[in-house]
Amino acid sequence: MNSRKLLTAIGILFAAVMLFSALTFNPPEAQLYEPEYMPEGCTSILVGKDASTDGSTMTTHTCDCGMCDWTWRHIPGADHKEGAVRKIYHISQYKTWPLAQGLKWEKYKDDYTGTDIPQPPHTYAYMHGMFGYMNENQVAIGESTIGCHRKMRNPTPSAVFDLTMLTLVAMERSKTARDAIKVMGSLAEKYGYGYNDAGEMLAVADPNEVWIFEIMPVGPLWTPKSGKPGAVWCAQRVPDGHVSVTPNESRIGEIDLKNPDYFLASPNAISYAVDNGFYDPKSGKPFSWKRAYSPSTGSAASTQARRGRLWRFLTLVAPSQNFSPDTENMDFPFSVKPDKKLSAQDVINITRDKYQGNKYDPAKGIKGGPFANPNYYRGFRIEDKRYNGPRCICVNNVEYTTVTQCRDWLPDPIGGIIWLSFGAQDTACYMPLYAGITEIPESFTAGDHWVFSRDSARWASDYVDFHTQVVYSYAIKDVKKAQENWEAKAINRTPIIDKTAHELYKKDPAQAIEFITDYCVNNANNVVNAWWKLGDQLLVKYNHFRIYNPETRKIDRVTPPESWIKAVIEYDKLEPVQPPVKEKPRKK
Question: Is residue 366 situated within a structural domain?
């Protein structure tokens, strides 16, 4: 066999191996089409500017992983000489390293793709965690994995960009949400998308617009030499007076590419579906993006709320529409007008939702144990029967949660805010980070799941969460008091900080930037210290299943509810203690 034939054979073999890998490799999102195994991924909420109480656009991201890197970084803006290039790296959402080897944001540079792209004259400052979240121009992002057909995945090196890298470059180069979408879409088309990721959604916002952007690979056989786009993507704008949500499900349905005010897409958005048999133009049915590329079945009712987040969100924001839990998720509207406009606190409260008071409430009855803990009941299989626990918007395996606000009545450095909480939302505290700050708290950059550290903000939140789980119904009241003291006050204080910063900005922008940086860092440090103290207090107060009062130095009892006690009596067939028989007095 001559060398040319040998190289051809090797190439064919490599392609076959990659194709087999794509068809058999099962990342977390691969289970998306099996409702009983729906992944506890991420929820992203989107709020148009006319649907919010103050005129801001909002996005959220509940980074629900349970094993991922939670650290954050601030990347300063930079000027670049002509001919400068930007190195592109593969960055896994999930991979971490032992602390002795280095944190993710030091180690990812070991996975250089070998591809450089030209730098623009200037790149913008931004903040990122697992993804880029907001830059100095108030371009904001949230994320949710949505899945795609297995044959579409491309885990080969031909896919230069994965989702994290796309968001970082978008932060560096975008002044608007549309800019970010076009930057990510064009790069994915030219250099290929996939490798670590498959079907993904991003909530992309600026002070005027908020969009759902969905992107998917185009299979393991794609190469740049094919002349075809290396990704397929579509974006739909949420109407200004509407809200929407992505709970690990594709949300874009019928699209109108003749209306660029509300739709943007790759040139192969429809043709790729036709070529691969995902859509038949002769069917007489209109093209639906989600039904073509990420079809799924199930409703809140049919999955025992395993796929209930979409329905739950709609009932929270638009109860007047009486959405049924029996409605197939694919049949729900792309967005709705909320019954009342939402504030930042309203959105934060939704990120904490666990179906409280609903028939799917995981703490209802004895499922939550003696202290109504919503984290006990996660579903199980017994005697070849499957029982699903509800998948709540709020789950306790979240790395962090973001609520972004973009506001057009303020200069960009002051107008943008990321409200960030670490760990489980119900026991954590949201802290503001203005778009223009030049540093973030040191505790936000430290720690991982496997090594306890008092230098890490995330461990402070986990410390409180851990001590709350023991007697949840009691301890959560203490946590809510702390949230009212630190979080609610910070939200209510925002107009004052805005005004002060804005007045400074008119006189001296640098002084305004220093002011908001000092405010955010000091507030966050105070919150982290308060959460360490709160964890200590919970440990002392509920030690030994008692209630220790340090002020009175008295002890009270922790008492389970009567319903739980009766269930224990019935299950274990307990018998009450018989009162002693009184002896009759003897006759003299």
Answer: no
The pLDDT assigned to 360 comes to 95
* Residue 409 pLDDT greater than 80, yes or no: yes
φ/ψ region of 519 (left if φ > 0, alpha if ψ in -120 to 50, else beta) reads alpha
Split at pLDDT 50, 70, 90, the class of 8 is: very low
Whole-number average pLDDT of the chain: 92
Closest CA to 403 of 344, 346, 350: 344
| 349 and 479 part of one domain | no
Phi and psi torsions of 382, nearest 5°: -150, 135
Whether residues 7 and 129 fall in one domain = yes
What is the per-residue pLDDT across 120-148, written as a single tens digit (0 to 9) for each?
999 999 999 999 999 999 999 999 999 99
Claim to verify: residue 324 and residue 420 sit in the same structural domain: no
Percentage of the chain modeled with pLDDT above 90: 84
Residue type (1 letter), 258: K
- Taking the CB of residue 165, how many other CB atoms lie within 10 A of it? 27
Whether 147 and 281 map to the same domain: the answer is yes
Total domains, the chain: 2
Domain presence at residue 278:
yes
Examine residue 351 and state whether it is found in any structural domain, yes or no.
Answer: yes
Residues 475 and 327 in one domain: no
- Per the structure, the complete domain to which residue 86 belongs is given by 3-355
- Buried b / exposed e along 367-393 (16+ C-beta atoms within 10 A): bbbbbbbbbbbebeeeeeeeebbbbbb
What's the pLDDT at 6? 41
Lowest mean pLDDT among 1-10, 267-276, 468-477: 1-10
* Averaged pLDDT for residues 172-188: 98
Q: Is the pLDDT of residue 448 over 90?
A: yes
Contact 32, 135 (CB under 8 A): no
Which residues, other chains included, contact 305 with Cβ-Cβ below 8 Å and sequence gap of 6+? Answer: 312, 325, 355, 360, 388, 390, 391
Calpha distance 180→354 (Å, rounded): 33
Whether 360 maps to a domain, the answer reads no
When pLDDT is averaged across residues 227-231 and rounded to a whole number, the result is 97
Biggest distance spanned by C-alpha atoms of the chain: 124
**Residues 469, 328 share a domain:** no
Is the domain of 422 the same as that of 318? no
Strands 417-422 and 112-118: unpaired
| 399: exposed, middle or buried (Cβ count in 10 Å: 0-12, 13-18, 19+) | buried
Same domain? For 347 and 479 the reply is: no
| Domain end marker among 355, 390, 419 | 355
Decide if 524 contacts 444 (C-beta within 8 A).
yes
